[in-house]
Input
Amino acid sequence: MNFMADKDAHLGKEETRRLERIGYDASEKERAGSFIQQDSDLLLRKTLHEDIDVMGVEEALKTVPDAASYYGKAFAALGREYPKETSGGYYIRIKAGKTVLFPVQACLYLKKANFKQKVHNLIIAEPGSKVYIITGCTAHIDSQEAYHLGISEFFVGAGAYVNFTMIHSWTRETSVEPKSIAIVDKAGVFISNYICLDPVKNITMYPTAVLDEMSTAHFSSLMVAHEGSAQDIGSRVIFNGRGSSAEIISRAVSLGGSVTARGHLKASSPDIKAHLECRGLVVNEKGRIHAIPELETEYRDVDMSHEAAIGKISKEEIEYLCSRGISKDKAQSLIIRGFVDTNILSLPELLKKEIDQLADRTLKSGL
Amino acid sequence: MDNSLKIENLTVEVGGRVILEDLNLEISPGSTLVLFGPNGSGKSTLIKAIMGFENYAITHGKIVFGGEVINGLSTDERAKKGIGVLFQNPPKIRGIKLRQMVELVTRRPAQEDIFVDKLNVGELMDRDLNVNFSGGEMKRSELLQVLSQRPKLLLLDEPESGVDIENIAMMGRVLNAFIREHAVASLIITHTGYVLDYVDAQHACVLMDRDIRCYDDPRKVFEDIRQFGYEKCRTCRGQ
Ligand SMILES: Nc1ncnc2c1ncn2[C@@H]1O[C@H](COP(=O)(O)OP(=O)(O)OP(=O)(O)O)[C@@H](O)[C@H]1O
Ligand SMILES: [Mg+2]
Output
């Protein structure tokens, strides 16, 4: 089945290698659609399943009658402004009541040196639908000073389920600013998995989910801050309806870089349940991790908790592994790899193995 | 094969405190020595010092394994020379599975290791190392790991404490078969003496007051401790 294959992307060797690092499967055997944007050019958009639409956001605004009504709506709901000068981004929409098990893959690729890539994505899960999305963002290895701004608006309809996995693999010279808001209707589920294991100059992001009655959000993130990287990464959930629940889980490793791991749970409604967990591992003396968990409510009838723990690699663990004949360096990388635990992510079975292998590869080459 | 261990005039300090002082001990090739001693006397400290753990500073003396002084070797080098440890209190390590450990040590798929079956650890293989392991499970996991190293010298720190009677028998038999088959030398720390029922030990001694004493037949030493307590060991100095 190939519903909308306008053109196949012609990717160079380096591009292919970079895209593989962010979970892109060129064979598309187990994908329901593909989207690739390089700088501001759309390279590929392909729908491989009849219940899903995948296209550039500009095309959607022109051809899909109600698309414009979603554009900016999530920001308006929070009374926030958003940058208007964007160029490109993807539009992914799943039809009401439909379930698509293969993930849709979307890649944003930053190639030109000194380029500022600014995209605006729209993800619409109609009521009762279920969709998996894997997005990768990466930069060409010699794209020197580069900048990426990614605006994403998610609309999770009543009873719908969105499982969104985002993998970042930048370069030491890239500055990144994702801005995401998910509006989750009654009994909807929004799951966000975030993975950033490669070096970056700086990332600032604070994705927010707004929950209606009986809905659920689950944010989990795995982050490694290399020397020279500054990552200010958090997740926020605003509870606007009874019976809603959320969990924010993160693991941050500092290999000499700086991580600010934020989490904010705001209960604007009673009868909600929320938990925040942040663990940090500082490997290198130059490293710095700052965990800022926040719980906020005006109601008594809420169940909110948080735990945060930061530590260094324990000598006892290293020596234990060494006493089995494992070298000190290997022991250290085993412990770090173990700490970057992909099991905290809510990944579909299909992606679990891919992401595990990706983490193996990335951490092996990065440590 | 020379897998003898010889410790000469060893003094070990932990956090500036002398735990072992001018200690001498010898395990001849292929023989087994049982080590008794009251809580806190420094038995585990001795094993950690033999492995070269950083907090266990050797301020004096020599550790000789197979005729070679190993004081200057790193912990992993000592393990690679053929020294294997079953730890009394191994650390929990999140994200590292028992299966992974066996594979790292043997460089082969874990199911190929005969001890996985023999020690009945199938259920533990895909769990994080020592995380929420019961006391007995921990010891079985430790024994599996150390045997998968196929060491020439075994240092076993209370292999049977917290283990139920049936599992003690099972572990004891596996251990004894391994020691005999490969003519392994071993140092076994025990409080209960159960291990004497399974492993053929030639000698025993007691560690107290920072030194070794009462070097004798294992059953005799154990019987004396049972009857008279460690207090009497103070009077029977020397080896
Ligand atoms: N890492 C350490 N830091 C501080 N003190 C330590 C450390 N390791 C051991 N000690 C101290 O050294 C002494 C000997 O401890 P060790 O664990 O060797 O005793 P043990 O003979 O094995 O006792 P047990 O029979 O209870 O296992 C104790 O007083 C203990 O508190
Ligand atoms: Mg001890």
About this structure: Chain B touches chain A through 25 residues (CB under 8 Å). Chain B has a mean pLDDT of 94. The longest helix of chain B spans residues 165-182. The helical segments of chain B are 43-51, 75-81, 98-106, 114-118, 135-148, 165-182, 218-228.
